[in-house]
Amino acid sequence: EVQLVQSGAEVKKPGESLKISCKGSGYSLTSNWIGWVRQMPGKGLEWMGIIYPGDSETRYSPSFQGQVTMSADKSISTSYLQWSSLKASDTAMYYCARLVSSWFYFDYWGQGTLVTVSS
Amino acid sequence: EIVLTQSPDTLSLSPGERATLSCRASQSVSSSYLAWYQQKPGQAPRLLIYGASIRATGIPDRFSGSGSGTDFTLTISRLEPEDFAVYYCQQYGSSFTFGPGTKVDIK
């Protein structure tokens, strides 16, 4: 069974750094790109970027380029999303999802990681 | 960047009724690269349709997708209580975009 399990909720202060994770199981992580999607409170879905865990190639949405960093460790089937200096506006639910690249849709989703940034 | 517009914002219907949701793109989208997702409160999105009209594994046949070019439609033939949720379309051109969503709520 394919599963993406994300790390737990985080509460941080503005200016702090953060790295959240997404661990895949039930399939070979090097077979599929992993995408990250933001959902701000009460809002819709926003694509942030995708990473290929096999070689850590990344593609960012222009809206998120320079704001976050995606990385991966294929040895432990885990992808990461990190911030170097959080802002209050980063408060959101963040989802990872597996990309089916032949059709460009996301078939399996993690449960989400809620990030709250507040002073 | 291709912008997706969904209408209506909210659709108020009763169980058993037919729901027709629209997704319009700012420029032509390959039908192969148009997907629909369902999201219920407190849950991650769930894939319903890909390739504009292909139901994902385990999706009931009351869900159907159609369309091409810039106009796509998700139809729920007879609403079940568990279908009341928010629905998003998503496309891939040179990048990914999601529509703003249509909420289907109980009338």
How would you characterize this protein structure?
The complex is a heterodimer of chains A (about 120) and B (about 110). Chain A has strands spanning about 5, 10, 20-25, 35-40, 45-50, 55-60, 70-75, 80-85, 90-100, 105-110, 115. Chain A has about 120 residues and is an all-beta fold. The termini of chain A are far apart. Chain A contains no helices and 11 strands. Chain B has about 110 residues and is mainly β. Chain B starts with a strand and ends with a strand. The model of chain B has no long low-confidence stretch (mean pLDDT about 95). Classes of the chains: A mainly beta (about 120), B mainly beta (about 110).
Number of DSSP helical runs of chain B: 0
Strand content of chain B: over 45%
Class per helix and strand makeup of chain A? mainly beta
Strand-residue proportion of chain A: over 45%
Shape of chain A: globular
Give me the Rg of chain A, rounded: 13 Å
Q: Average pLDDT value of chain A?
A: 96
* Percent range of helical residues of chain B: under 10%
What characteristics describe this protein?
heterodimer, A: 119 residues, mainly beta, 7-stranded mixed sheet, 4-stranded antiparallel sheet, 11 strands, globular, B: 107 residues, 3-stranded antiparallel sheet, 0% helix
